[in-house]
Each structure stands twice: as structure tokens, then as C-alpha cells.
Write a structure and sequence with these properties.
Layout (H helix, E strand, L loop, with lengths): L17 H8 L2 H8 L5 H5 L3 E11 L8 H10 L9 H11 L1 H7 L3 H11 L7 E15 L5 E20 L4 E13 L6 E8 L4 E13 L3 E8 L2 E8 L2 E8 L2 E2 L14 E13 L5 E8 L5 E9 L5 E4 L4 E3 L7 E9 L2 H5 L1 E4 L6 E5 L7 E7 L9 E9 L14 E8 L12 H6 L11 E5 L7 E2 L7 E5 L6 E2 L6 E2 L2 H21 L8 E2 L15 E2 L40 H6 L4 H9 L14 E2 L10
Parallel strand pairs: 15-21, 21-29, 22-24, 27-28
Antiparallel strand pairs: 1-2, 1-13, 2-3, 3-4, 3-5, 4-7, 5-6, 6-11, 7-8, 8-9, 9-10, 12-13, 14-16, 16-19, 17-20, 18-19, 20-21, 23-24, 25-26
């Protein structure tokens, strides 16, 4: 999914439940005008539920407010903003307001601030901090029909603060981290979605967010001067302060017991946008730089549908590579409410390939997977279903129906990485399909220089298919039907097998005489005898059988004894028959091709490219 960036138009994805969403949000008469359909009072009053999520991130100054270094820097550069530092800033003040401690440390607030201003560039305070929050929620329709309000939800957050500043006379260092989650309280937290009819075919919306959570971190701070070292260790609300000076232990003053007893952080955000009547999805992403020169991100997603939709692979076609060990490398990705994406549990099918998945537990919005080693059988390619089931919190949020994605697996048509290891893949796998037509004794040979797709030499046991031209697009000479890939393969097999059958029936010693009769006495006429077959026009069709030759559809081919090129083919003219050297025996093979029903083996064609894959290479 692509979310709109700063300044982009909010993107809306068409789904069927918009009528219900908007019906609750604006007056019924307005909806009727926009959608062209009536909306009943019952629909208008129905307490719809929307699912949504907010991803909120801060980076740099202001992202966190724990630690002595952070507090000092914020106080030096941004005294007003530093008030957010709460307990840590109060700790600094408490220490420096104690005369004995200030004397032991050898500095005061003004001196530290002056030192920082001289030594630290004002535009880039050395605060490497981050705060990330993920809010998942349900909204319920307001009774007055103006929009939606918070029904339930939860927030998960994490934070890190690594701040180090060192000057000639001062070193300050923080290393803190924290993470937690808690349920939202609709009585205290606010997520409010309001709709407004703009009169232009769109519904304006505004979103107000104010979610507050307890904010606990763990870590250490150190404050080093030429004469003293002060260290603070914090474990949630518990704080320990120690110190040493050149004269002995630092005189740590009594500190308020509730210094860190009530720390909170608030995610506050306001957004506006449009929902058009063709869809019911709200997506919005914004990034900005705050007053402290830190970066902030807010990403909102609200849907009327909580079902997962697998959107990748797209298109859902996967082809092995031509490497010695064929490989498919792909990513499966699910689309849906962001909090539900995190709760997606993937179920991959049992496949006849070597399979590796990352992450191994297959939980999350994305799974990278690798399938290796082409299978033995052609019917092991084809369709495989990828499924997504939900874990909590999506189940707890009422997210429902599961929609599978069917992927199709193909082999590279020209590769030779099938289990046989010698023949090209197209030959190895298509010979296992109905396109083979039961034909035996077939081999693949290299064919040089011309457009030959296959050939049979009288007297040979094997039919020869040309690599790689056998599956190239062609037209059946008898009826002008276009063929390619598995259809071309089937047609060429039928064609060449007819040549072999003609030889065996008409000319092979196994079935009787093997030579055409010839003029032995010089009278200009062939001389019949028991050991030869009369073929007066040398078209390789014995005179005795030529008038009876029929096509698979039953019609007589009309071959003429005494005329070598009496063949009639649909799109091929009589002159072309002669110029191409298509004698009457060749004609019987071309007519035999119509025995094949084009498209009948399409469902078995798992070549890439092929009749199911399409023309382009994978």
C-alpha cells in the first residue's frame, strides 16, 4: 500500500461499505444526492464501527525527556521546552540549588548553560533520541450522526535516548530506553473523527487525537566535571543517585520521593482530509520538523473493513530462476488496518520445494520466502494458496474474514534445471502432459539455421524436436489457427509422429515392401513387383492409398495419383505448396495437426513464458 505523503491528496480505495460509513457521518438527504440511492433511517442510525491505527514517531530533540544530559541541553537551548523534562530537569535544579552540592560539583546552572552554548552548535544539539508509538483503535458512531469517537484501543510505545556531550570542563551522558503498552481509556483519551459535507461530491473529515500514557524508562546518566562525578540510575519510577568528588563522596541532598512518580507522555495530533464517495478508506501521512529541530511523523489509517487482503506477490505469478538450483525469492505482504497487519499469522502451503521463511514464526505484515529446487512432476507446479489468520490484538478488535491469495508457480521455459538435468525444461515437463498425445520415442536435438520445429528421418526410431524453436509461435497450415508454447509442442509432435506412422505403414520392411517401384525396363513406366510399392508421382504416398487419405475431421484430402503436389491447405496457396516443397505426404502430416484442440492443455502449461504466463519473460 502507498500512503499519501505531505501535501498529497488523500488516497481512497474503493470498497463496498462507504454508504454505511457516510450515512452515519452526514445527513441522509446529502448522501442520497451524492450516491444517487436512498438511505433509510435505520441505516443512518446504525452504530457502525471503524477500525484504525496511528503510527507516531519523533526523532531528535524533544523525542524523550529522561536523563541529566538531555535536561541540561534542553534547558540551555530551549528553556521553555525543557519544562517537559519533568523529573530529570527537576533533579538538576534540586542538585544545583543545594549549596554544598553545587560547591562539590564545582559549577552552577548558569556556568553549565554558558559552557554548552559555547561548545555545542545551536542548530544541532547532540541528542540522539527517538520515540515511537503505535495506536490501534475502534471508533463508534456518535449518537448525533456527526462522526465517530473512541470506543476502545491500545497504545504500544518504545523510546531510546543516547545523549553525549563533552567539553573541556564538562561531560554529560545519557543512556536510557523504555517500552510498554496500555489500553486506551475513552473517558480520558480522545480520538475523534468528524465528517462535513463539502457540497462538491466529497466529505471532509477532521481527526483530533490526544492519547496520554505512563512513561517509564530505564538507564543511567553521568555528569562529570574536573572535580566530581555524579551518576543517576533509573528503573521506571525508582531512582538512585551517587557521586564522588576529589574530596570524597558527594554530599547528595535529600530529594523529593515523588520526583519520578507521575511521568506521562501525550501523543497529540490533528489532521484533515477528504473521503470521496467512491471509497471508504482514510489514509494520511505527514512529516514535519518541530520547534526543537526534531523530525516527527504521523501516519493514520482508518477503515470500515478489518479483513486482511494479501496484496503481494502482485501479480501472483512466481517463476523459478534458470540457475542450477532454481530459486524463487518473493515477499508476501498483507494489506489491512496497520494494527491488524502486525497481528497477521501467515500459513504457507506444503510445497514440493525446499522452503525458507523469514521471520521464521511467519507473523507480521510481511514474510520473505525462498523456494528452491524444481519438482519432479509438472503437476507440482501451479496454484498454491497463501492464508492469513489473525492473532491478538486483531482478534480482540473483532477483525474477521480471511481472504487467501492464490499464487501460481512456473518453471523457466529454457532452463535445464529440472530433475532430469539434460533436456530443456519445456520438454521435460510438457512430455508429462496431455499435449504429448501418448507419443513415444521423442528426443530434443539442436536444429541449425532454419525455421524447422521438428523433423523425422525415414527409417529412424526417434522423432526429433528442435531446441528451442519447437514452442515458437506458428500457424497451422491446414486451418490457419495460431499456436504457440504447449499448443505448438503438441502440434509438432502430432505432425512428426504422422511422418513416422506413414513410414512404418507404407515403407518399412517391418510392414512389407520398403522401396518405391521404379522403371526397370526403360519404357518410362515404373515396373510393379512384389518387393516394392508403386508411387508414380514420388510424393511418398503409395498410389494404392493416396485416393483414400482423409483428414481427422473425415474429409477426403483429394490427393491425385500422378501429381506430386496435389495437397490443398487452408491458408497456403497451390503455388506456395509447390514452392515450399510440400508434397502429398507432407500434406497428410499438416492435416493431422488439426487433431489437436488448441487450448486444451493450457491448464497444464506452467512454462514461463507460456500460454498461462503470457509472452513476457519472468
Amino acid at each position: 500500500m502507498t500512503l499519501a505523503g505531505p501535501g498529497d491528496t488523500d488516497r481512497v480505495r474503493p470498497v463496498s461499505s462507504l454508504r454505511r460509513l457516510v450515512a452515519v457521518g452526514v445527513a441522509a438527504v446529502t448522501v442520497t444526492a451524492l450516491l444517487g440511492v436512498p438511505v433509510t433511517a435505520a441505516e443512518q442510525a446504525e452504530p457502525d464501527v471503524l477500525w484504525g491505527s496511528i503510527r507516531y514517531s519523533e526523532r531528535g530533540p524533544g523525542a524523550t525527556y529522561d536523563g541529566i544530559a538531555n535536561s541540561f541541553i534542553m534547558g540551555a537551548f530551549m528553556p521553555v521546552a525543557a519544562a517537559r523534562a519533568g523529573g530529570a530537569m527537576q533533579l538538576v535544579i534540586e542538585l544545583l540549588q543545594n549549596p554544598a552540592m553545587a560547591e562539590a560539583i564545582g559549577t552552577d546552572m548558569a556556568s553549565v548553560s554558558d559552557e554548552l552554548r559555547r561548545s555545542v552548535p545551536s542548530g544541532t544539539p547532540p541528542i540522539r533520541a527517538r520515540y515511537d508509538a503505535f495506536i490501534s483503535f475502534q471508533l463508534e458512531a456518535k449518537s448525533d450522526g456527526s462522526g465517530y469517537r473512541l470506543k476502545s484501543g491500545s497504545i504500544s510505545w518504545s523510546t531510546d535516548n543516547t545523549t553525549v556531550v563533552s567539553t573541556e570542563d564538562l561531560t554529560l551522558q545519557d543512556r536510557f530506553h523504555g517500552m510498554d503498552s496500555e489500553l486506551l481509556d475513552p473517558a480520558e483519551d480522545v480520538i475523534d473523527l468528524t465528517f462535513e459535507d463539502r457540497g462538491d461530491g466529497s466529505i471532509g473529515w477532521s481527526l483530533d487525537v490526544e492519547v496520554t500514557h505512563e512513561y517509564w524508562t530505564r538507564g543511567t546518566s553521568s555528569w562529570v566535571t574536573p572535580v566530581a562525578t555524579i551518576s543517576m540510575t533509573r528503573d521506571r519510577s525508582e531512582m538512585t543517585l551517587t557521586g564522588d568528588t576529589v574530596f570524597g563522596p558527594a554530599p547528595i541532598p535529600p530529594l523529593p520521593s515523588d520526583l519520578f512518580a507521575d511521568q506521562t507522555k501525550t501523543v497529540g495530533y490533528t489532521a484533515v482530509g477528504s473521503v470521496f464517495v467512491i471509497g471508504d478508506q482514510i489514509l494520511k501521512t505527514e512529516t514535519w520538523t518541530n520547534i526543537l529541530e526534531g523530525s516527527q511523523l504521523a501516519q493514520v489509517e482508518i477503515r470500515a473493513d478489518c479483513a486482511p487482503v494479501i496484496v503481494e506477490p502482485e501479480p501472483p505469478r512466481l517463476a523459478f530462476s534458470e540457475a542450477d538450483v532454481g530459486t524463487i525469492e518473493a515477499t508476501a505482504r498483507v494489506l489491512g488496518p496497520a494494527f491488524a497487519q502486525q497481528a497477521a499469522r501467515w500459513e504457507f502451503p506444503d510445497v514440493p520445494f525446499d522452503a525458507v521463511y523469514e521471520p521464521k514464526d511467519q507473523i507480521g505484515p510481511r514474510v520473505d520466502f525462498v523456494w528452491r529446487k524444481l519438482p519432479e512432476r509438472n503437476d507440482q507446479f501451479g496454484e498454491y494458496d497463501l492464508w492469513v489468520e489473525y492473532t491478538d490484538p486483531a482478534i480482540a478488535a473483532g477483525c474477521g474474514s480471511v481472504r487467501p491469495l492464490t499464487v501460481e508457480v512456473f518453471f523457466p521455459i529454457d532452463g535445464r534445471n529440472n530433475p532430469g538435468g539434460t533436456d530443456p525444461n519445456w520438454f521435460y515437463y510438457w512430455m508429462q502432459t496431455s499435449a504429448r498425445n501418448g507419443v513415444q520415442d521423442v528426443r530434443v536435438v539442436e536444429c541449425a539455421g532454419d525455421a524447422t520445429l521438428g523433423h523425422y528421418t525415414y527409417g529412424d526410431t526417434y522423432l526429433n524436436l528442435c531446441d528451442p524453436e519447437t514452442y515458437e509461435p506458428d500457424i497451422r497450415a491446414a486451418d490457419g489457427v495460431a499456436i504457440s508454447y504447449i499448443d505448438a509442442f503438441a502440434v509438432i509432435l502430432i505432425h512428426e509422429n504422422r511422418h513416422r506412422e506413414n513410414y512404418r505403414k507404407w515403407w518399412s520392411a517391418r510392414y512389407g515392401p520398403k522401396d518405391a517401384c521404379w522403371d526397370r525396363d526403360g519404357d518410362g513406366k515404373d515396373d510393379p513387383r512384389p518387393t516394392c510399392v508403386m508411387d508414380t508421382d514420388r510424393d511418398q504416398v503409395p498410389d494404392a492409398v493416396e485416393p483414400q487419405q482423409r483428414a481427422p475431421d473425415g474429409h477426403n484430402l483429394g490427393l491425385v495419383v500422378g501429381t506430386k503436389y496435389s495437397c490443398v491447405l487452408g491458408p497456403v496457396t497451390a503455388a506456395q505448396v509447390v514452392s515450399l516443397g510440400l508434397n502429398d505426404e507432407e500434406c497428410t502430416a499438416y492435416w493431422e495437426e488439426i487433431r489437436w484442440q488448441v487450448g486444451s492443455a493450457r491448464a497444464e502449461d506452467w512454462a514461463a513464458p507460456g500460454t498461462q504466463w503470457g509472452e513476457g519473460r519472468p
